[in-house]
Design goal:
This protein has helices spanning 45-52, 74-79, 96-106, 111-126, 141-152, 171-186, 198-204, 222-229, 244-250, 274-288, 302-318; strands at residues 5-16, 19-30, 34-38, 60-65, 68-69, 81-84, 159-163, 190-195, 207-212, 215-220, 233-238, 259-261, 266-270, 292-298. It is α/β, with parallel strands linked by helices. β9 and β10 form a beta hairpin. The relative contact order is 0.13. The structure holds adenosine-5'-triphosphate (ATP).
Length: 319
């Protein structure tokens, strides 16, 4: 384990009856970073988090959190972690401030320190002090999750586990939670984030591990994963939908691999060489007198990457 790793898993295995939930999972998370754990349902994400948070004993492999072994030094690990699950235990009738004070007292902070800690967290997550005086039942979904997040930080954990933190939130609530997570990492906390939203991992994570059937099938920065999974793409929107097929034939990659969206008058195709392809396309469209509303080069999205990786894996298993 490098001293820079806040989380290390090497060859972790966990079996439930006949189901091998973790099948030699490897994970290394550097201190002060956000690491995304992505994978389809049943991949083993929740099992991984439960093992790391000392809620479940694994069968084999080395697992260390904040420098301590999760089996032999579970109490040391617990002292250094926070966990935000999918359902939090907030008291609806109490205000945000009272909830935080209650959590602080449950963590054995004295009355005065509890008040101070609640104040600090309210200030950090909500800015406005009066939010803290409102009863939790009046909070929006996004505010509630931020209060959950504040509660999980009472003990100032070195490592925080966020298990699907924005499930069920609307886009605005999701954005608010993202902001809070970003500010956390700025303060030095290491975050392991499991999510089913690829965009969320793309927005927040420094690195991502894609998990499938209890193993990591790919790992890297969001950019690396996108590069590995596929070529850049060129998107062209033509002004006159009647000329879409003509434009399609002019694309450098040819028509075979292109996606066509007739309603939006848009073509998207992979390219071999970013700069050359853009220049070629602009010239070819101009020469043919086809007006483009928009031409852009882009990386593949994480959605495209994810599909590519998990289908590649399915083929490997079938082979
Ligand atoms: P999801 O996104 O659906 O929560 P996940 O990636 O978190 O999925 P896990 O919950 O870790 O996946 O489950 C991994 C595998 O182990 C799944 O096949 C699941 O059905 C199985 N499993 C999980 N908990 C148990 C249990 N207590 N007993 C038996 N099998 C279990």
């Amino acid at each position: 384990m490098s001293v820079d790793d806040a989380i290390l898993m090497r060859g972790a295995r966990k079996r439930y009856g006949r189901k091998q939930a973790l099948d030699g999972l490897d994970l290394a998370v550097r201190r002060g970073t956000v690491h995304g754990l992505l994978g389809p349902n049943g991949a083993g994400k929740t099992t991984t988090v439960r093992v790391l948070a000392t809620l479940l004993r694994h069968d084999e492999g080395e697992v260390r959190v904040a420098g301590h072994d999760v089996r032999r030094e579970a109490a040391e690990v617990r002292r250094r972690i926070g966990l935000l699950g999918q359902h939090a235990a907030l008291d609806e009738e109490l205000s945000g401030r009272q909830n935080l004070e209650m959590f602080a007292r449950l963590h054995h902070l004295g009355a005065r320190r509890a008040v101070r800690r609640a104040d600090e967290l309210l200030e950090r997550f909500f800015g406005l002090a009066d939010t803290g005086r409102k009863a939790v039942r009046q909070y929006s979904g996004g505010m509630r999750r931020r209060l959950d997040l504040a509660a999980s930080l009472i003990t100032d954990p070195e490592v925080l586990f966020l298990d699907e933190p924005t499930t069920g939130l609307d886009p605005r609530g999701r954005g608010e939670v993202w902001e809070s997570v970003r500010s956390l990492v700025g303060a030095g906390t290491t975050v392991l984030l499991t999510t089913q939203y690829l965009e969320e991992a793309d927005q927040l994570a420094d690195r991502i591990s894609v998990v499938d059937q209890g193993r990591v099938v790919a790992d890297g920065t969001p950019d690396e994963l996108k590069t590995r999974a596929g070529r850049d793409r060129i998107d062209v929107v033509v002004r006159d939908g009647a000329r879409l097929d003509e434009a399609l034939r002019l694309l450098p990659s040819g028509t075979a691999e292109a996606d066509v969206d007739r309603d939006r008058r848009r073509i998207s195709a992979p390219v071999r060489d970013r700069t050359a392809s853009l220049a070629e396309t602009v010239r070819a469209l101009e020469a043919a007198g086809i007006e483009a509303e928009d031409i852009a080069l882009r990386r593949p999205t994480l959605d495209e990457v994810f599909l590519h990786l998990t289908s590649a894996r399915a083929e490997e298993v079938a082979a």
